Amino acid sequence: MILLVFSFRRNSESGVEARQESIWILGFGLVFPAVILGALLAYGLVIGAQLSPQNGANAVKVTAEARRWEWRFTYADAPALETTGTLHIPAGRPVDIAITTADVIHSFWVPRLAGKLDAIPGHINTLRLEADMPGTYKGVSAEFSGAGYEAFTFRVIAHTEAGWTKFLQGQPE
Amino acid sequence: MNALERHRKLTEIWASDKGFKGWFSTVNHNDLGRMFLVTAFFFFIVGGLLAMLIRVQLATPHSAFAGPEIYNQIFTMHGTVMMFLFAIPTFEGLAIYLLPKMLGTRDLAFPRLTAYGFWCYAFGGSMLIVAMLFGIAPDGGWFMYPPLTSAIHSPGINADFWLIGITFVEISAIAAAVEITVSVLKYRAPSMSLAKMPIFAWYALITALMILTGFPPLILGSVLLELERAFGLPFFQVDLGGDSLLWQHLFWLFGHPEVYIIFLPAAGVISTVLPVMCRTTLLGYGWIVSAAVALAFLSFGLWVHHMFTTGIPHMGLAFFSAASTLVAVPTGVQIFAWIGTMWKGRPELHLPMLHILGFFFTFVIGGLTGVMVAVVPFDWQAHDTAFITAHLHYVLFGGFVFPIFAGVYYWLPHFTGRKRFFCLGELAFALVFVGFHVTFLAMHWVGLLGQRRRIPTYAPEDGWTAINLISSVGSFILAIGIAMILVDVVLHIVTAHRGRRNPWNATTLEWAMITPAPAYTFASLPRITWRDPLSAEPDLAVSLARGEGYLGTPRHNWRETLAVDIASGKPEMHVLYPANTRLPILMSAVTGLFFLSLLMKFYWTVPLAMGGVAFLAWKWVWGLGLRQDQAVQSVGHGLSLPNAATVARSPGWWGTAFLLTANATFFGALLFGFAFLWTIAPGWPPPAWFTPSIFELGVGISGAALAPLAIRHATRVNESGGTPFPTVILALCGIVALGFACASLMWRAPTPNEHAYGATMLVLGGYGTFHTAISGLMGGFLTAQIRSGYTSANRRAAFPIVGLWVKYTSATGVIILLAAHLPGLIP
């Protein structure tokens, strides 16, 4: 844009057209973006790979099933337990959330913990997240699902180690 | 004959009927281009009013302005109207109006098709507007994701309006794309080689080819979803072997090229207007053409970046992320070529130039946020928030609306022959520019704070109140600016005084005529050996008006022009255009009846409408028949050319070839869908496979082998003066055999309502049957022509066209039969 402003200055001596072409198009048009974008892409891919679920053996496994308009969560460590609208996780441990839906497409999004991942009928998508601190985090569904969409929210409660054990045993804190 | 007499005589030949009745029968690109543009801007106003309603709703928390049911219709229609009823038709209108003038010819390749496309667009668009007025407009978001839009979750008629109305409108896009492709390739001034074409024609050609390959997946998706909604064929229902992800793939396979289909024509406007505003020539013509071609190819490899959050494996994401960043490179080449052009020249701040600067500023920001969302981890956060809405408005408003306004102000004197009088335009630009940036910068911000797109309201404690209010205020400034532009244009048309020809001192051919453009466009056709013809020959307009070019003498009340060799621009044939007719509007009305019958579920009128279309199409082509052999015609300057009906590769052949390109993309997308469901959808294998039959397979494939051979033989026999009748009948027999095998596949498709496999078999069989019916109809037409003496060794153009259809039908028929029968035959 700075270049744009300068173009209004009358340049006293314009070079040969071929030379201008090579400066503008090869220099600014091809080389400059290629270098910047290449670096950005590599950075993004590395971060993306780190955010994807690895083979973490100590990851807590939960499932999240969406329907219009509530989320149901079940826990691999306590098969009898089901919560609605609130997901309980331990803080400081990676959690793998298997996301799916019983009706239309929804999206699981807890902005402070991870990016969003869609809940698609018949498919199970796994999201890895980890809460560093115990606390309550707000979550929303981020895929338009008809009238009622705006109120489609949930909570994630990250427990301390002791609180998590209690929760799994079915005792309220 | 002096210039004035020539003008009167040619006007008499080319003019449309007097009064408003002329609108219904005109086939002239001058009229139809204007009609397209006016209609498109009508829809722009509609879409803009919807946008205002959205901003009213979001201006304050807990707004009670519209309930969610109405609000969902408003934002769905805003997106739909702007994309399908404003952006694409504006390109079509501009290209239809400008191309013949820039290319130095008198009309587009298929004038009646232009009219048919316009009426399909007008009728289809009206269907959607009527739905909105009755409060039953589509409400599933403009990309209509099933299962939200399937019959279970959206039982009303709303979604059907979208699927059927948009498919109807798409007919006009396909028609215009075929028209533009053939016109750019074949209908140019003598000696205008591809390398001498005005840059806008390159952009129009690339865009048209992209429409031909980009729209069919969407049409297929709409057809499949409508079949699911109306007849319960479960293509997108996961418990019955379908997969809702298939829709997303088909939709974005269209949707991403669509972004470039919208941007490229705007880039064409900039590449045309910018050098004129800077008193210089375009820097790097060849580079710009290559960049546009590269963009077209790359844009088909990007669709998955709209689906980064659907759980696609990270390797796949890496590929599409790389492609998405790569696409910034050819865009960068174009931007820098334009900036280089400005450095090379001396920019003058006329009104079109202001809008171009608006484009630069806005589009570059949109491009940068585009690079941001191409980075996968960032997209996981930003996806489906107001940040994306803001990004896409920067790209579309910056990359399309500003350049179009520049184009409107640039070509306005050409449309009207008048000088701008009021200076509303500059003030309007300032309001639009400021209003736009206030609105959408705020929207980026609120998106990063977590506001999702498409929410009807929000709570005060979300903390978005102030930003949304700022955004809404900005949007009203923007709306006032746009209203002022429209007022300015209307005032210009009705009040300003006459201006001189070529007010910008432009060098392209469209200014080498009196303005407003006469019905016949050029009094005689120029010979073009320069890329900037008017700088080489400043008096070209006068010499053409004096009839010093080709075809300078009006004769026999013919609407005549020349068609040229694609690469070199060497004159190749002499073309006679059809005159004014109501056939196009009638045919699009009957086509509309077909779509309306489907919409209202009056299924008994469907075959009636189909028969009506077939009858009118027959009449349409029959009217072109010639009873006498055509001698070569003198076209001036000592040149004589054969008539288009006496060559092997007539314009009709080229049109058929490009129509079949679009058709083949449709078929390819159907095969992709089949393979996708088979490999990805969870509910497979199906409970029952299709029972193969060696007999049917054998009959079908023999028919598919016989028909093309027979039609080829018939073409040869006809050219050597023999009677082609028996071999055409033989070809028809082959078509019938293939049709039998395809119809049987439809009939025996296993439980199409219970599994997507059977439904796919039904659709594949239906595709084959439909095409054998078309080929049969064409074969029958050819037989009737032969019997009535409309063909001869001289008048031979119909044979290769029928041959193309027959070959296409046979090739796709064989693939369909193999796809259906082979899995069961291989143990």
UniProtKB/TrEMBL annotation, chain A:
Q: Which biological process, per GO, is one annotated for this protein?
A: ATP synthesis coupled electron transport
What PANTHER family is this protein classified in? CYTOCHROME C OXIDASE SUBUNIT 2, CYTOCHROME C OXIDASE, SUBUNIT II
Gene (UniProt): qoxB
Which PROSITE patterns does the record match to this protein? Answer: COX2_CUA (PS50857)
Q: Family per UniProt? A: Belongs to the cytochrome c oxidase subunit 2 family.
Is Heme among the key words of this record? Answer: no
Mind telling me what this protein is named? QoxB, Quinol oxidase subunit II
**Transmembrane helix is among the record's keywords:** yes
Location relative to the cell: Membrane
Q: Which terms does the record give in the GO molecular function aspect? A: copper ion binding; cytochrome-c oxidase activity
Q: Which reaction does it catalyse?
A: 4 Fe(II)-[cytochrome c] + O2 + 8 H(+)(in) = 4 Fe(III)-[cytochrome c] + 2 H2O + 4 H(+)(out)
Which Pfam families does the UniProt entry name for this protein? Answer: COX2
UniProtKB/TrEMBL annotation, chain B:
Report the catalytic activity.
4 Fe(II)-[cytochrome c] + O2 + 8 H(+)(in) = 4 Fe(III)-[cytochrome c] + 2 H2O + 4 H(+)(out)
The biological process GO terms on file are: aerobic respiration; electron transport coupled proton transport; respiratory electron transport chain
Q: Which UniProt keywords apply?
A: Cell membrane, Copper, Electron transport, Heme, Iron, Membrane, Metal-binding, Respiratory chain, Translocase, Transmembrane, Transmembrane helix, Transport
Q: Which residues form the Cytochrome oxidase subunit I profile domain?
A: 23-529
Stated EC number for the protein is 7.1.1.9
Pathway(s) annotated for this protein in UniProt: Energy metabolism; oxidative phosphorylation
List GO terms (cellular component aspect): plasma membrane
Q: What is its main location?
A: membrane
Spans through the membrane: 35-54, 74-98, 118-137, 161-187, 199-225, 259-278, 285-305, 317-339, 351-378, 390-412, 424-446, 466-491, 575-596, 602-621, 657-681, 693-711, 723-747, 759-784, 805-826
Its topology with respect to the membrane?
Multi-pass membrane protein
InterPro entries named among the record's database cross-references: Cyt_c_oxase-like_su1_dom, Cyt_c_oxase-like_su1_sf, Cyt_C_Oxase_1, Cyt_c_Oxase_su1_BS, Cyt_c_oxidase_su1_bac, Cyt_c_oxidase_su3-like_sf
Among the GO molecular function terms of this UniProt record, one is:
cytochrome-c oxidase activity
Q: Where does it localize?
A: Cell membrane
Top-level class of the enzyme under EC nomenclature: translocase
Q: What family, per the record?
A: Belongs to the heme-copper respiratory oxidase family.
Protein name from the UniProt record: cytochrome-c oxidase
Upper taxonomic lineage: Bacteria, Pseudomonadati, Pseudomonadota, Alphaproteobacteria, Rhodobacterales
